[in-house]
Amino acid sequence: MKASQFLISTLKEAPADAEVVSHKLMMRAGMIKKLGAGIYSYMPMGLRVVRKVEAIVREEMNRAGAVELAMPVIQPAELWQETGRFEAMGPELLRIKDRHERDYVVQPTSEEVVTDIARQEIKSYKQLPKNFYQIQTKFRDERRPRFGLMRGREFTMKDAYSFDRDQDAAKLSYQVMAKAYRKIFDRFGLVYRAVAADSGAIGGDLSEEFQVIAATGEDAIVYCPGSDYAANMEKAEALAPQSPRAAATQALEKVSTPGMSTCVDVANYLKLPIENSLKTLVVATDERDDKGEIVKSRVWLLLIRGDRSMNEVKVGKIPGLAGFRFATLTEIDEHFGCEPGYLGPVGLKKPLSVVVDREVAVMSDWICGANVADYHLSGVNWGRDLPEPDVIADLRNVVEGDLSPDGKGALAIERGIEIGHVFYLGTKYSRAMNATFLDVNGKPQFMEMGCYGIGITRLPAAAIEQNHDERGIIWPDALAPFTVVLCPISPDRFPDVKAAADKLYAELMEAGVDVILDDRNERPGAMFADWELIGVPHRVTLGDRGLKEGMVEYQHRRDAAATSVPVAEVLGLIQARLKA
Amino acid sequence: MKASQFLISTLKEAPADAEVVSHKLMMRAGMIKKLGAGIYSYMPMGLRVVRKVEAIVREEMNRAGAVELAMPVIQPAELWQETGRFEAMGPELLRIKDRHERDYVVQPTSEEVVTDIARQEIKSYKQLPKNFYQIQTKFRDERRPRFGLMRGREFTMKDAYSFDRDQDAAKLSYQVMAKAYRKIFDRFGLVYRAVAADSGAIGGDLSEEFQVIAATGEDAIVYCPGSDYAANMEKAEALAPQSPRAAATQALEKVSTPGMSTCVDVANYLKLPIENSLKTLVVATDERDDKGEIVKSRVWLLLIRGDRSMNEVKVGKIPGLAGFRFATLTEIDEHFGCEPGYLGPVGLKKPLSVVVDREVAVMSDWICGANVADYHLSGVNWGRDLPEPDVIADLRNVVEGDLSPDGKGALAIERGIEIGHVFYLGTKYSRAMNATFLDVNGKPQFMEMGCYGIGITRLPAAAIEQNHDERGIIWPDALAPFTVVLCPISPDRFPDVKAAADKLYAELMEAGVDVILDDRNERPGAMFADWELIGVPHRVTLGDRGLKEGMVEYQHRRDAAATSVPVAEVLGLIQARLKA
User: Is the pTM of this model over 0.80?
Assistant: First the structure.
């Protein structure tokens, strides 16, 4: 490609609404253009990156035995009504009426359509396994679209769906995909982690997120430097402390804590370590009748250490606590006879279900609210001041230094950006849509499914969050809009520079290198600034002085300075670096 | 590809709603699957064809200097309001409201968005010319979607838009595209014509449709076998007859034609040739005020020969007749004092504007209505019985045998399917959206635009309409989902067949041939029927008996019978046929 035939359109300043670095740099490098909230045009420079992502994903999906198809962007509501998602999904699902007032949705994913295809196409176990995928436009009507491609409304996703005869086969399909994903993200040249994720109501361990590591990531990733353990915060297990509960050493005491309603305030005020304090969380669950009316509610007391944070996913998985909510002030008053801020498990007005975090179960001499405004209890001990805990569970988010669940060291935490997810679905959709096949015995069985996504247009943004400096983007070779840029200096003044640039360009093109020749006649400073902003990894500068001695300058985007290279060796050098 | 890893899903019968052969065959061959009215999933077999279309289009667009980008499928209404199309377009434009009740459209084309990009990106004449294109999902909410991919609602279009500094440059950009289109359709291996089309209000000749020739085509194409003249019916010019008007030989006579209100009936009844009769068409034009209220109407009389049909596009281009409508009965009575069926230009009650077809202007001794119910006039002659015509124009559709406008022989007519259109837009959109650049003198000028479409997903359907037989599709090499199919006969019983098929498959794959190995263990009859339906052009059958002598059977989809070929020569044979 020659720059004069392309569209190079860089900006000195990022627009005011660009908050994160990838959004800023993609706007400044002319890769995307905003059309509306969360809706972007992919400009020529940006589209080249997207196409490279697509090509690698397609190649590895095909290699893993998945078959590409394309489902419509605009889908009739009927199938979505079959699974109940048409009603159940919130306003994120963009709903449309056509000229005949019939309902449609813009696909956010395609479980319904692909399951409909499978139930029509797959009759027998002999046709299984099958894995269908598409690389297609999706839309999610986010309440607050932001961060450019990171949280847009219209985006491109690769979504794959596997169909299997039984759970074992489904797990195999899942593993094949998980392996393909590793290959894909390896090829992109990104630093990433596959982390265990919550698998929802299905249970089991068959849910992993692929997270690109970046300080600016939205997600906290938990990992063990001494092993391959990695999980997202929702999923990462906090083990029970290894040491047993210490014996009580203090007497129970009611202490005045005027106006001190947080654990931190109380600990500071009492000059006691926060690790000795207890956080009291009051939640409730509702039983509903067929019409969805609440017929009975139950109040629960959850206890975690004062410096910990509750993990809502873990709490929701405790038997009886699925779909829990925070308790109302009335419910709290009914059980504690006190306002929030001074609640505790000792001396309740009315008994309730108590669930105690693993860590809390081994605490002694602790502090908690006295169920009287402006008072706390100190020196509280299980068994002596209140009954031993009934239900002990993992209720909290892990923190740095916690013991790894695999026992192989302490946990560390870093930030990541989710760019892929592999997920075992079970029969959730095949049951809802009656997608069956005949097994070896001729009996109908629900298909076992898995789904596997990659955020095609999010990926370039994640790559930039991980790979940039103050001058701009630094693309990994596999994602760069162009692999090499040739920068001739003043080719209009020096015919030998123009000739050498044209010759090298032809040579690189011939060798299949994805090269762009900057024939715009820009001044060197402006030209270099453009390419550093755009982030092309390999740059060759051709100047009159060097060429007199047969030399040009090579500089990798990460190099601090250029290296003189004989012009005849440029191709070899670049090919060697691309292989490395 | 191996068939067992792919999805081959053929049907004996086409669904009842499939009316045209391409729709039937694409459904039967498992290429598409209907999801809703005019909404299809592209199944793996069909998507391969679509991807081949896309790849060739992309390659030739890039080669022609166009730059690929991608504009959003869902576009905010604001830009569409700028050009007035948000209101002006009918219900074909799918309109959406998002969660915040803001208006959006699903793109049917992208003139507004691309012009918005151009007005932001292009500041100076130095940046021109530019041609941006995308291959993207489009939606048109057709009232009656039908014929499968031929007239679907969701479809993929390649739309390109050129921007130029002046009309001459714009015409050059147009020619570059027209040339690229010929190359594209040549590469597809289709029989097509580029036909002149109406260029709307802009005038000039810069509008051509690319029509795939097929007996089932919706469009009539006019061409001259003796030259390269070709136009669509709307555009094809009917020349004035070459012979001058003959002298009058008959006296004007008022004849009784009871109940005979059509030209055919009258000519038959009077035993006179229909070529002597005249069709009287009464139309009207309205002048409106600023509020759109009609302030004045004008009635026009159009005269064409009795066996001709009116060409509405031509009529609309006559000065004063833009936006014409048919006259009301009141208007007709006011001017003729008679009901339709017996109208004529002689003895009008109230004068009106008369426009006479070129052919009619040279007729003598003709028949027309007498402006009295149940009566006609015969032996009517210009100059003698009524004044010579004022305005003479081309008002009619051409017919087979008409003189070609280039004077190089007689016109012929055939049917076609429109798969591409190149169109000079002028400054229609750049004016509406104030898209200017600074010219050499530093003065702002509106950009001259052109637009260029190819129906990516319609093209396979058109190719099938042109290339099929009673057994199924016959793909041109460039469009086939697979170029070659290997059909081993009973490989489960004959290990040598399986081995030879695997070996040949590996050899063809290695050589870059797009081959599929049918490893499904189907019976030969069913296997052949599948591949003939799917339309893979080259088939190699491997049987135990032939292989004992080192021979396999080669058959092109158009061949009546197979040819014995040494297995060692198969690759060479196929490569030679693919080059030819």
Answer: yes
